[in-house]
């Protein structure tokens, strides 16, 4: 593989997260990555340090590098940040050009084809990428990288907390946003986007990720040992 840089490796990892091919808590071995990309472990380490700075991986003493496992609070923060960024993108938009709408409709058509027959990774990636595509098409290129990272963070949360939000529902919500933009109703598009992000967040099974019997198990573990009593 030629022209591989630490940034190239980092972006491939983020892409794998967006496609839900890398799960929270998954180990990223330096040697395995080096062999995969045909580069030195030094370059891989630089890539992992980039990802660590962006909040996607963490290093554990004597164990190596792992994809982060976001907490419920981390997930809420990421969704809140997406609301601010994406609502802001749409709030400042004027009537979109036909080229913008055409590109977004092409993206939704790709989503539909993926839902109908593509593998789960392609489907997950396209649904996440819609939001980056929207920022790009609306002329907010400086926010594309920011939104890609935020979307990857919420994707990790969706993977960890087993989101019940269906792919077809996401696609339909994307289409409704684009339809509002096509009509020049940016206020409605903005509200639909906020609703969409809220729907995805609400579909997370945050409570299910915590063992409801954890406290009961601890009480049972630490309860005094019941010694047998002699028969009277």
Automatic annotation (TrEMBL):
PROSITE patterns, alphabetized: HTH_GNTR (PS50949)
Gene3D superfamilies: GntR ligand-binding domain-like, Winged helix-like DNA-binding domain superfamily/Winged helix DNA-binding domain
InterPro entries for the chain: GntR_C, TF_FadR/GntR_C, Tscrpt_reg_HTH_GntR, WH-like_DNA-bd_sf, WH_DNA-bd_sf
Keyword Endoplasmic reticulum part of the UniProt annotation: no
Keywords, ordered alphabetically: DNA-binding, Transcription, Transcription regulation
Stretches assigned to the HTH gntR-type domain: 3-70
Protein name: GntR family transcriptional regulator
């Amino acid at each position: 593989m030629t022209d591989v840089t630490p940034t190239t490796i980092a972006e491939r990892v983020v892409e794998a997260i967006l496609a839900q091919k890398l799960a929270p808590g998954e180990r990223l071995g330096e040697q395995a990555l080096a062999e995969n990309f045909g580069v030195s472990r030094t370059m891989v380490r630089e890539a992992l340090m980039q990802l660590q700075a962006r909040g996607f991986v963490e290093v554990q003493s004597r164990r190596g590098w792992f994809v982060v496992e976001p907490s419920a609070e981390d997930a809420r923060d990421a969704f809140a940040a997406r609301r601010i960024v994406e609502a802001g993108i749409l709030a400042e938009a004027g009537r979109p050009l036909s080229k913008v709408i055409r590109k977004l409709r092409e993206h939704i058509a790709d989503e539909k084809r993926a839902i109908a027959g593509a593998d789960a990774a392609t489907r997950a990636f396209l649904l996440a990428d819609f939001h980056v595509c929207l920022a790009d098409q609306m002329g907010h290129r400086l926010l594309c990288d920011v939104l890609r990272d935020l979307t990857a963070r919420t994707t990790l949360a969706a993977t960890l907390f087993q989101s019940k939000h269906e792919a077809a529902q996401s696609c339909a919500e994307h289409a409704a946003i684009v339809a509002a933009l096509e009509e020049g109703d940016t206020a409605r598009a903005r509200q639909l986007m906020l609703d969409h992000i809220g729907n995805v967040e609400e579909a997370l099974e945050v409570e299910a990720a915590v063992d409801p019997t954890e406290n009961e198990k601890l009480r049972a573990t630490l309860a005094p040992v019941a010694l047998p009593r002699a028969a009277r």
